[in-house]
Every structure is written in structure tokens, then in C-alpha cells.
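Problem: given the chain below (98 residues), write out its structure.
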Amino acid sequence: MNEATGMLLQITAGLGGGLLIGGLFFGGLWWTVQRLASSPRPALLAAGSLAVRLALLGAGLWAVTRFGLLALLAAGAGLLIARQWIVRQVRAGSAEAV
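Solution.
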């Protein structure tokens, strides 16, 4: 494998991993927020959700680091892209509900 192919693999793996991790993290956050008002124990739900989401985030980013620094940077970009996509979905859903 030449250097360019290796770099492309790092970027692709990192971006894909970041999108997946970000989708789980921010999707989980939205899922939690939707259920807080009806939860009998909202503080426990919020704390548990945060713990699970941070564990997934940490484990996912640790796994991405095995592909190198370039992959980690691409994962950061993937996280931001996933966040923006989820925010747009939430806003679109809120606009339809009004």
C-alpha cells in the first residue's frame, strides 16, 4: 500500500467512525431530551444517558486512534457533521409540529 492509499484509508475510516459515533452521541442526546419530561426520575435518566454516551464516545474515539492522527482529525470532522445533521433533523421536526 502506498502512502496516498494509506492516508485515504485513514481519512475514510476516521470520517466514517466519526459519523457513526456522532450519530449515536447526538441521537442519544435527542432521545434523552424527548423522554425527560415524562420520566419519573429525570436526573437518573440524564446522568445515565450522559454516562453511556460518553463511554461510547470515548471508546469510539479510542478505536479510531488505532488508524492514526489523520483518522482522529477526520473523526472530529465526522462528529461535527453528524451533530449538524441531527440539529437540522430536530429543527425540521419542530417546525412540522407547530
